[in-house]
């Protein structure tokens, strides 16, 4: 707490001397969850569980002429993981964002430091804001923005510490990363983006008599199209994946289409389909054919129960996801109902037989309520009706009632704002 007060005082002192703008805001976000078959079918004989997690954030936004600086301090916890009389916090306070941006001209700028990389619908690069910890990168990015065109490119190079000799990068993260993103807004209705992402992961080959460390690079690339005019709201994307990963060839792809229509001022209906390539369970080749969304905000896709692509996507049978989305907004309330039908994208073969590709049906229902200016309440209920094929892939008992419920309160007050 003393360190936090010192940071605030220092920032205020700098602001009084030369700053143009300073904005400080806070977020407190506790979330209750009842997990009874969340992420995987509940094993036979096991019971569900519940807990409360919380994110606490303090954001400093500072601007002086062509310089912009942001610092976000964050603590994530599960209620009860630290006893009341504890002398230290289990997770401590982490730096979620800490970057400085300089605007060279009205069109060109550069940003360095810990930052969020989020583009288009966040399928490949996103903040993952649902997770209490979210996601940010240590990176350098350069931007060129005009009224209709945007070009961002950047990169990162990671190490475990300030080492003196070659040291293996043992963190479950990329060793090096480069990306480029281009967007053209042709008119008010139609926009087109193209993303190229190159991620390199370090590994030690086996056998390795010379103690070598190698880096294999995987490339993810493709367009994202969005069209919104009148009552129509639609988008489409297609991404390919190639390169190598731990000395294995990569050949995978992902494509999706979504169509939405505003039936009335309050009611919107949509339907969509997504295909993520996978690998047959009896495929003995070393080629990686399962698409990896890399740094995508995966909770927002393929069902809110996170059975697919939330920390469990590598070397799988892929996925087909057909869904309908119904939204109804009235006054301060927002409601959504999203049924999904899941099928595998590749063959699921057991030693005895080839299983049906149908994995299951998930029903997601959510609500949101704008309680006050800086307070929102949201929640939801989801249920998975799994199949025998899903049992084989994810284990657990499909005959059990597999459901999940959550309730979250987000408090986001601005606690200080000043302009010189």
Please characterize this protein's 3D structure.
The protein is mostly beta strands and about 425 residues long. It is built from 2 helices and 20 strands. It has an 18-stranded antiparallel β-barrel. The longest helix has 17 residues. The radius of gyration is 23 Å and the shape is globular. The protein starts with a helix and ends with a strand. About 25% of the residues are buried. The model has no long low-confidence stretch (mean pLDDT about 95).
Task: Please give a handful of descriptors for the protein shown.
420 residues, mainly beta, 18-stranded antiparallel barrel, 2 helices, 20 strands, globular
What is shown here, in short?
With 420 residues, the protein is mainly beta.
Topology at a glance:
Blueprint: H1 2-18, E1 21-36, E2 49-64, E3 67-78, E4 94-103, E5 108-115, E6 137-145, E7 149-157, E8 176-185, E9 190-203, E10 214-229, E11 232-245, E12 248-249, E13 252-262, E14 267-276, E15 319-330, E16 333-343, E17 358-372, E18 375-386, H2 388-394, E19 402-411, E20 414-419
Antiparallel strand pairs: 1-2, 1-19, 1-20, 2-3, 3-4, 4-5, 5-6, 6-7, 7-8, 8-9, 9-10, 10-11, 11-12, 11-13, 13-14, 14-15, 15-16, 16-17, 17-18, 18-19
